[in-house]
Amino acid sequence: MKKSCLLIVTLLIVVATSNEVHAQLKVRVVSGIIDINDGPLYRNANKYASLSDSLDKNLKANPKDTTSLFFRALLYLKSNDVIAKPYQRTKGTLENLTIAKNMAEKAVSLKMQDFNLKVLRAEIYKELVYRFTGDESWMFNSKQKNERKALFNNYKELANKYYDELIQLDNQNAYDYEKLKIKDNYPL
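RE: above sequence
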């Protein structure tokens, strides 16, 4: 009798909590922008801390796991994008976006073919370009300005290239990708 009651209670708990537990993040692409489909627009990095730690641990054990690379790059992007950290010079943001870029590029080099990865990669480069758009001439000498301009132009070229590829792959949403292309020039 006690075993059957315990089994029933356990099943009720599992059924009640099953709506709250997800093995992977729900991802969607809206207007050409990749998003975590969990409700809020603003991302709190602490909300995904345990998932980030789990993905980091998995990537140490399996550095060629493209799914982990994709989801970790997505978390880096969404916790460091313009909505989460709007000021271009926020400490650590450029570094985290560079890590996300490297993870996305590694997933591509490992032959991951997911459409969401292509959108993620373009968006990461767009965010990297944004980090160089502020007028920060007073902070850098001429050599640093030239290095930053080269990075800006490289990221801009790659972001626009990847958006062009998305236009070809998903021509139903071509207008959205065209709007996301970068038209700015380096400000300094």
